[in-house]
Structure formats: structure tokens, C-alpha cells
Amino acid sequence: MNNPTLHSAAPRRIGPFRVPPIGLGCMNLSHAYGAPPPADTAEPLLLQALDLGVTLFDTAALYGFGANELLVGRVLKPYRHKIVLCSKGGMAGQAFEGGMRRVIDGRPQAIRRHCEDSLKRLQTDTIDLYYLHRWHKAVPIEDSVGAVARLVEAGKVRAVGLSEVSAPTLLKAHAVHPIAALQTEYSLWTRNAEIAVLQACRDIGAAFVAFSPLGRGFLCNTPPDPAAFDVKDIRRNMPRFAAPHWAANLRLLDGVRALAAALPCTVAQLALAWLLARGEHVVPIPGTTQAAHLQDNAGAAAITLSAAQIGRLDALVNAATVSGARYGDQASAEVDTEAIAVS
């Protein structure tokens, strides 16, 4: 199997930054897939990522309602000069009777507040790449991006990004301030980006940062068991992980496993290598809570796929063969990404 580090990998560009071709999505160290790992697991994992050559670390105000930024800030503060630190605002936690809930708020005053709060949690004076986590559709995208642009002018942010928006929205935002990166789910089994936004990023010189590049655990040697999902696991509300879609999707993995075995590499490495081949502007940010998976993911940068291997993967797993939508109704209504009709 391929398990080298990222230190010798050719860098990719995100705005003014040069980063290895694979970053780290930090979300599931604090959020989304059930109970997060304890600190004595999460903290060493961030440091292992540094040792492997990862310099792009992605977090958000929403993740763990600030807990993820606190973790990342605390652990990586001594290495701040070595990393590209990314966070997101425009969607954050809000206290209410009985707990916390997430709220999308793209008003300029909210974005300023989110950024100030993130800077404190991250223990830094500047966030390298600050994304609008969601476009708040009640607020013109120009107003929200204008607020982030003013954070750039104030020296609190170095580059501007967007998350889960369509190509037309990207272009509107780019007319207000240069967009360094657009972040959206992209993998073999989630192809929405190929409708328009992947090319739009290329056209304006923006990076495309692919989150959930391993299909939220599907594109692995041993995919998860939906029956065992924690009650707070967000995949419980994703149609692809529910009957009858899950059984149909599992059948797609037989051919993928055969291709991986022939290389040889793991299924995750094969899926990441496929993404890296989609364009020099594509930077996947897989997340994990396991040291072995972190090492495995880094090894994908050393894999070069032939045109025939890419074609075979495209034929096996694509928008026509995957069963079920990627989001449920509520989450689908909140994003602005181009949609693919699904079975």
C-alpha cells in the first residue's frame, strides 16, 4: 500500500498560498458523526497531520458550536507560522432554551461577529482563508461577501472563500472581491460540482476544495454500518445511507475494490487519487478520527492513475449509478449548489 508523507508532493495553489495536495478537514473531531473523540485522541491526530506534511487545516464556527476552533487553536498555535488556517462564518451556534441550534446568518454584522469570535477561539490575529459557510438567501451575496472583504481590509482575514454555492453565485461574489476558494462536497459518488462550479473555479483562478471526498465513509475498504450510527450522526438524515439506497450503493464497491487491489492501494487512496486527477485546482480535505486513516489518506498523493483507470472508476460510480440524494429536504433547501436528478 502507499503510505508516504506529503512533504515531497507537488503543491497546489489556494489564493496566495501554496499547500500540499491534501489537507485536513477537522470537523469530525468535534461534530457531525456522533460523539467526538476525546482530547487525548484528537490532539495527537492534529500533530500527526503536521508530521505527515499537512499544512491546510479546515475548521468552522459551527463545528461543535466553537469546540473545534478551540481545539485547533489550542493545538496548532505553536505551529501557526507553518500552516494555512481556514475557518467559516455565516452559520454558527445560537443558544436557545434547551441547548444550542445552528443558525444561518449572512448579515454583515453577523459575519463580523462570527469572525471576531473565531479569531479568539483560534488564538490568532488573522484567519488565512475565511469562508462564507452558507449563502443566507435572504441577504444578497454581494452584501455578505462585502463584509468579508472589509475583514480583509482590516487585516483579520487574508483570503475569501465560499461554501456550497452555485456557479452564478460564485461569479456574483467574485465581482465584489476575488474568491480564492470554493468549498463543496465532491467525490466519486457526489458529482454536483461537475455541472458548472468546478469549471467556474478554474475560469476565475479559484481553488476547488473538496469536502467529504470519501463519501462520508462510503469510499473506504470497510464502509460504515448505518444501523450503528449514533443518534446525533448527520448521516441518519442523508438518503444515500437509508434503505433502499444503501444496499444499492454497496454493490458499487465491488468494482472499486478490485481496481484498488490491482494498483495496489486502499479504496480511500483510490478515491482521493481520482479527485486529484480532476484538476490542479482541486484540493481534497478528508477528515478522520483515526491515525491509521490519516496516514493512509496522505499516501494518495503518490498515486497516479491512468486514463483507463479513471475511465473505469467513472463508469462504476457516477451520478447515474449512485442511489439517493446527498442531502435530505432541509439541507438541500439551505444550499445553493447545482442539483443532479437522483433515483
Task: Explain what you see.
The protein is an alpha/beta fold. Helix content is 35%, strand content 17%. An eight-stranded parallel sheet has the order 3-4-5-8-9-10-11-12. The chain has a two-stranded antiparallel ribbon with strand order 1-2. Strand 3 (24-25), helix 1 (39-52) and strand 4 (56-58) form a beta-alpha-beta unit. The mean pLDDT is 96.
List the helices and strands and how they pair.
Layout: E1 12-14, E2 17-19, E3 24-25, H1 39-52, E4 56-58, H2 67-76, E5 84-89, E6 91-96, E7 99-104, H3 108-122, E8 127-132, H4 141-153, E9 157-163, H5 167-176, E10 179-185, H6 197-204, E11 207-211, H7 245-250, H8 253-262, H9 267-276, E12 282-284, H10 291-298, H11 307-316, H12 329-334
Parallel strand pairs: 3-4, 4-5, 5-8, 8-9, 9-10, 10-11, 11-12
Antiparallel strand pairs: 1-2, 6-7
Helix pairs in contact: 1-2, 1-10, 3-4, 4-5, 5-6, 8-11
